[in-house]
Design brief:
Layout lengths: L8 E4 L15 E5 L16 H4 L1 H15 L3 E5 L4 H11 L4 E3 L10
Length: 108
């Protein structure tokens, strides 16, 4: 299946991926990932610092995506996509297309 998103930048495609157990079932997961530069104690004073730490949040987000088994995953408010998201989603077997935010080009 080819992604048709003319205004988006296709980062990677999934080649040779296995079909879902029920190939007619489409499941969808939407996650607000909270961009790293927004995950600060100043922005979230009541949240424990370890919960804002990017590596621990990434581990939990990856586990959530993996356990969902979703056909389609929509991620909002992400940064570091080339460093972390692109390789992680590829490892999980997903294609990834991105569209920068109009109000903050460094965040997708």
């Amino acid at each position: 299946m080819e992604l048709n998103c003319p205004d988006w930048t296709l980062l990677q495609t999934r080649a040779g991926a296995e079909a879902a157990p029920d190939e007619h079932l489409l499941t969808f997961l939407s996650l607000h990932a909270l961009a790293e530069r927004r995950a600060t104690a100043a922005n979230f004073p009541l949240v424990h610092a370890s919960s804002l730490h990017a590596p621990s949040r990434h581990t939990r987000l990856e586990a959530e995506v993996r356990s969902s088994g979703a056909s389609l995953v929509a991620l909002q408010d992400i940064d570091g996509y080339e460093r972390w998201w692109a390789p992680t989603m590829k490892r999980l077997g997903y294609d990834m297309a991105v569209a920068p935010r109009s109000d903050d080009p460094g965040v997708l």
